[in-house]
Amino acid sequence: MHRHGAVRSQSRRGECYDNALPGTTQAESLWSLLKTEVLELREWPVFADPADAQASIADYFDYYNHDRLHSSIGYQTPYHAHRQLLKTTALNCPA
């Protein structure tokens, strides 16, 4: 890594929130669900090739955002909740 100029991004031991960014919890949840709802259900090898991996993950992201209901947002899809938030925000914004 050093030879290529890459810098490690790693938290200190016992400090899991060192690298936390806004939305990190949701991102970690998404990756966890992808692993349990897609990857662990497939036989090895999980993907035929990189194009298959990309298409499969894109399909899951589409499902996650447009079809999968999330209890943390009132059993709505993220897409629907975001659209509702945009409407509310637009109504509360001064012109």
UniProtKB/TrEMBL annotation:
It holds the Pfam family rve_3. This is Integrase catalytic domain-containing protein. PANTHER family: TRANSPOSASE INSF FOR INSERTION SEQUENCE IS3B-RELATED, TRANSPOSASE INSO FOR INSERTION SEQUENCE ELEMENT IS911B-RELATED. Transmembrane segments: none annotated. Coiled coil: none annotated. It comes from the Bacteria. InterPro entries: Integrase_cat-core (IPR001584), RNaseH-like_sf (IPR012337), Transposase_IS3/IS150/IS904 (IPR050900). Signal peptide: none annotated. Residues 1-22 are annotated as: Disordered. Residues 11-78 form the Integrase catalytic domain.
